[in-house]
Amino acid sequence: MVMRKPKIRKDFLRTRFKRVLKMSTLTARIAATYLTLKSRTIFSNASRKEELNREFEIKSANQVVETLGQMRGVMMKLGQMAGYLNDGLPENVKTTLGALYNSVPPMSRELAESTIEAELGARLGDVFASFDLDPIAAASIGQVHRAITKSGKAVAVKVQYPDAANTMAADLANTDAMSRVIGLAFPNIDTRRVVNEIRERMLEELDYEIEARNQSLFYNYYRGHPFIHIPRIYPELSNKRLLVTELVTGSSFDEVLAWPVQERNLAAETIYRFVFGSLYRIAAFNGDPHPGNYIFHKSGRVTFLDFGLTKVFQPAHLFVFESMIKTILIQPNPDEFRKVIESAGLIPPDSPLATSEIAEYFQHFYAFLASEEEVELSSEFASAIFRHTFDVSSRISKFIDVPEYFVIIQRINLGLYALLARLGATANWRKIAEEIWTFIQGPPATTMGELEQKWLRDTGKRG
Predict the structure, then answer these.
(1) What is the pLDDT of residue 174?
(2) Averaged pLDDT of the chain
(3) Mapping DSSP to helix (H, G, I), strand (E, B) and coil, where does residue 246 land?
């Protein structure tokens, strides 16, 4: 008998080859651009050289956007993250990479229609009263359409690209390369564990039934909340590659940047309360702080979207987070803090690091909570946190390890604070945090805090 390889394996290998070829071509194009512009700087004065360098930054960023926008999958996610994560990037490069939020080429109307109908097992007209085949959003593994159900409900229909599974698998196949990159920065890290955690969470994003369960967890908890809104799921219309939810309209992140400072502060406070309230009250973290995952309304009301990348924590994990806060902030005790992070696996017990050195390193991540006054989460702060996290010159980096339950939550340091900084968020973060920390449950620090505390009492969610 002649054995044949499954077709999906051939498709995967073909997809992987094409994506490697595209990245190689991108590298060659950027190199050619660099060499061309470099030759033009030889006889240029200082101001002209600076102008040409900016030209190179913009051209290369445009080439990245063009390539990654076509590739979708993990590679495009990385490009999107680069556009909003690090305030250390040149502003023109960040702006250009930021175009990836909206520049993903959508499926053709014909392909979208046939793909959705295949998932529904029915014609669109048999399921929906109306359906707009022009997407309202296109992202790394799927796109979203507006529709009206037969019962008259406005819904958002997220459909996965036909080749999304192969695309993600191809990007995540070369785990050795990812491990080597991480290992260069943090030689003590169990890179296999870190990469496996990233891979597992990203592959979960391909299963919209998992996303629906994640979103339902948040929806059920926050139902009726005064300023946090989660769209409801329509499970009868959803499956592994099709997700139908309540349609929500409002303002985008970029539009909010032009709002008055008071409105921006309210929006930022809501995001902060959602992220940390979810972590400590329902032990869940929606790990994708992407500007496109928020829909903003006035007076601090925010709708949160996209729950594909969600991490649910065990009580032991939360105990570690709480113990770190207690021993570094509430009742600072460097010796006890060291014991906590050693038992958690962040630092080996036999490291030669001084206790004061360890405390000083980790205090950077809590700096904005040290004061009981209003603090602005500035771009300088976000950039400093980013640089501090990846400071390979630090002696600490040679000994740090990252337990798997810390991997996704690092998106707080690398993503959330960057977005809050773009809003120019100012508040008494320490007092707000003390409200949220279940081991303190402090009094309301703001008007929004009063509204939330009343909701917690009325719904019986306040312990």
Answers:
(1) 60
(2) 81
(3) strand
